[in-house]
Each structure stands twice: as structure tokens, then as C-alpha cells.
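Task 17 of the worksheet. Students: predict the tertiary structure of the chain below and write it out as C-alpha cells. Keep your answer in the requested format; marks are given for formatting as well as content.
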Amino acid sequence: MPIFYRGAGVGTYWHVNDPRNAGFSPHLPKSLPSRARLMNHVARGTVTSPFVSLTRSFGVALDYARQGPLPPSSETPAYVWEVEIPEKVPPGIKVIDPVKEVARFLPGPLASAHYAHDGPQSFLLAVIDPATFPDANLAVPLPPGGSGPAKAANLSLELQTLVSALRDSEILVCGTIPKEWIVMRYEFIA
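Model answer:
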């Protein structure tokens, strides 16, 4: 069975509420899954969706656990939850790779509205980690002889979703993750 993880920082919902009691449930379990809800969930952290985020990376889950609103301590450690998903997922639950889902609907390379950015190579650093790389969101360089006002690089919701999903090694579960799939809770104080 594939193993996934979910970080829970001190003071977050899944730190206060133990998913071993009722599983991981989405904020809006009865809302209809859509590409727009998926992209907003992944790229903008909009949790009002029918999705629950998991990661294949223990390191990513640990990063999220350490980034909670309160610092972990010996009295209140941060958690990383380990989840095993069976090869045959029962009806009512769907496991989605957001990269593959978004890529299915991307326009061709000649389309004017495209997911690609038009900034420098360092632009993606700002998409991946804007707090660490605020200067990477540079103005679009113009070819020699070009004129006109500088503009910010294009960042489509599709590109932001692809980059965020790859950064976090993210998969989405549409539906509630049963408590039986939660096999371990790791605790961290630093």
C-alpha cells in the first residue's frame, strides 16, 4: 500500500482534532469537485473544498508541521501523520494527482493564453518560496530595442498549481480518509 503523510502544526485543526477518531475529512465534503476548486486548493491554500491534501514526502509534511501558528515544544509537539492508502480505493473516495489533472486541460503551445511564465529563470523560485526569494519575482526582460513599461511576469493559476503540487509532492483525496488508513503519528519538538 502506498504511504503518504500530512503535517499538522501546533494549533492547526488536525493538531487539535485527532484524525484517528474519525479520519481526515475535507472542509466542504458535499461540494462538487471541479478543476477550479482543485487549483485554488493546491495553489492558493483554499481549504474550502472537497479535497484533503497529502504528500508522498515525509520532509514536506515535516516542514508543514513545523510551520504551524505556534512553535512546537516538548509539551505540545507538532505532528506528522502517516497514511496508507489501499491499492483498491473504495467507492466514494477518489485519489487525484493534481499535476496530471491540470495538465489534461492545458492549451497547446501556440495558444495565446498559456500556462508558461514570461519572466526570468529565477521567477519560479518566487513561486516556490516567495518568503525566501522575494526578489526573484522580477520584471519581464524585453528584447534589445524593445520599449514600453516594465511588467510583472505572467503567473497563471495553472502554473502556480503545477509548481505548488510538484514542490509539495502533493496528492489530493476527494472524500474522507478513513481512520483505518491512519497508521502512525510522529511527534516533533523542533
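Marker's comment: The beta strands are 3-8, 51-55, 78-84, 94-96, 170-174, 182-188. The chain has seven helices and six strands.
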